[in-house]
Amino acid sequence: MADLATLRKPAALSPARSRAGDRLGPKVRRNASAHGFLIGAVLCFCFFSWYPMCREVVMSFQKTKLGVTSWAGWANYERIFHDPTFWVAWRNTVEFTVLALIIGYAVPFFVAILLNELRHARGYLRCLVYLPVMLPPTSALLLFAYFYDPTYGLFNDVLRHLDLPVSQWVQSPGTGVPSMAMISVVIAATWMNMGGATLIYLAALQNIPGELYEAAELDGAGLFRKIRHVTIPQTRLILSMLLLLQIVATMQMFVEAFILTNGGAGVNNNTLSVVNLIYQYAFALSGASNYDTASALGVVLMLVLAVFSGGYLWLTRQPER
Amino acid sequence: MADPTTRTLISAAQLNRARGKITYRIVLTLVVVIFTLVFIGPLYFLFADGLKSTQEAVQVPPTIVPAHLHPDSYAAAWSRVGLARLLVNTLYYAFGALIFQLIFDVAAAYSLSRLRPVLGNVIFALMLATLMIPATVLLVPQYVTVANLPILHLNLIGSPAAIWLPSVANAFNIFLLKRFFDSIPSDLLAAAAIDGASPLRTLRSVVLPISRPILGVVSIFSLVAVWKDFLWPLLVEYGYNPSRETLNVGIFEASSTTTQNLVLAASAMAAVPTLVFFLVFQRNILSGLTAGSLKG
């Protein structure tokens, strides 16, 4: 940051200097003005992205008592690893991620295959699928909370009409895996978010050369074998990219559980995600907010997600070579 | 998008047979009906159930069509939840963030793409690296930083800058813009330079006019991102002063103290601006989505 500050000065002076003489050399002047264009964004990255990243790691090794900050060694990490809710939150997050992948990863792919075959109403269907993505999440989730209500909710009414046992949905007390509460969260999340993935798959499907299907037909392949041997291999890169992106996105689940269960914990913490726990550590624990412990948890989450992000990077690098 | 003659899973010949035609018709009808039910159905309840009376909204069994229309619950929700204030707040944050992003991110992308300063590649790589660190992970240190900016010792909590400035640190915007600027023919910019245009002048008179499509995409996504954000505004605005909350946060906070029909009416009204926005910019949004995520 210090060198950026010194680089900025010539930028500010450059208009005056440019006429005063070209003694400075065109290269330096060009650089100065180039950095002048960069400075706003770079400062924002410094303050709100790069610095917090380092700060998180530093804070995770500190403790603050009565406004005095000192080094704490691994104490914050020890504390979170000894906190039973930490393991509950991780189990829930993995449960959410796996369920969201089973539902939210496969469904958009098959919806995209279906939509790609239709010759009519394409624009309409595409809009429909993307519509929920545009809704403010609070509107969508409060609506689902209403549908999920065990007494007057629409979903239980439908179940009653079909003579099926009713459910408590998000308010289900069970903490098993998978829990009904978490499945409910996943259904709402999938409805809200599947549009993006569907449209990306759709674009990938349209890039498959038609000859491949023709060749497969000549070899006598039926519908499912064509999907298996042409569609899936041809979209493999997009499929794996989206898989990693979706893992990273779903592991950060917060707002769905927070709104559906009015605070994120659910019954016996059965919908509490890791980000929910970070929020609880930092901001919600009855005044005893502890940024340092929350930072330690943030670092743990960052490391886990870095594995998947790294995989994504590696995948996207491949085709360029 | 693709022309309808593109060969897909099922061949045109297969579809043209009598059996193929019938099956296609049935599948098409089913898909249209089911998709309409799944994606528009919930929206119907969102808007219709806001029209119910307080008792009818929580009645067992629920009614599909409101028995008595109560448009006044929309009016009640509007004043009770303070939607006018929430709407103004959210618009203020969203458009402010948009302006900051357009100015700083466009300038940065232009510099990285065309002016190519020393260390530009390093800076760009560091920016892209932030894409790998998801925003929620940095929640706490970001909050602490915004509460006390290093060196400047400013506290931005409660000020709109707490939403505007962090939104500038968006590597994806810079990536999209830079990639577009990279594709502008150099001759065009060389011509401007020969005419004696300064970099700023070149940006304004040559680069920006041809960059309308990408500026549109970036603007749409930046507006939508601020509009949909929940956790960050909850912390930096609501946490400081509830009157500065956004639509999302405001309706959520009101939901626990308001009756069900008012919650639904407020949620429905909060959804209207984004729905209208989507219907108007539908084409740009849908094409921008794939343009941004795929190889291009």
> How many E strands of chain A?
2
- Cα end-to-end separation of chain A: 34 Å
Radius of gyration of chain A, whole Å: 26 Å
Q: Which pair of chains has the greatest number of interface residues, and how are they split between the two chains?
A: A-B, 105 and 106 residues
Strand content of chain A: under 5%
Structural class of chain B: mainly alpha
Mean pLDDT of chain B: 87
Short characterization:
The complex is a heterodimer of chains A (321) and B (296). With 321 residues, chain A is mainly α.
Describe this structure in words.
The complex is a heterodimer of chains A (321) and B (296). Chain A is an all-alpha fold and 321 residues long. Chain A is built from 14 helices and two strands, in the order ααββαααααααααααα. In chain A, strands 1-2 form a two-stranded antiparallel sheet. In chain A, a hairpin with a 2-residue loop joins strand 1 (62-65) and strand 2. In chain A, 45% of the residues are buried. In chain B, helix 10 (186-194) packs antiparallel against helix 11 (199-210) and helix 14 runs antiparallel to helix 15. Chain B is built from 15 helices and no strands. The longest helix of chain B has 34 residues, at 260-293.
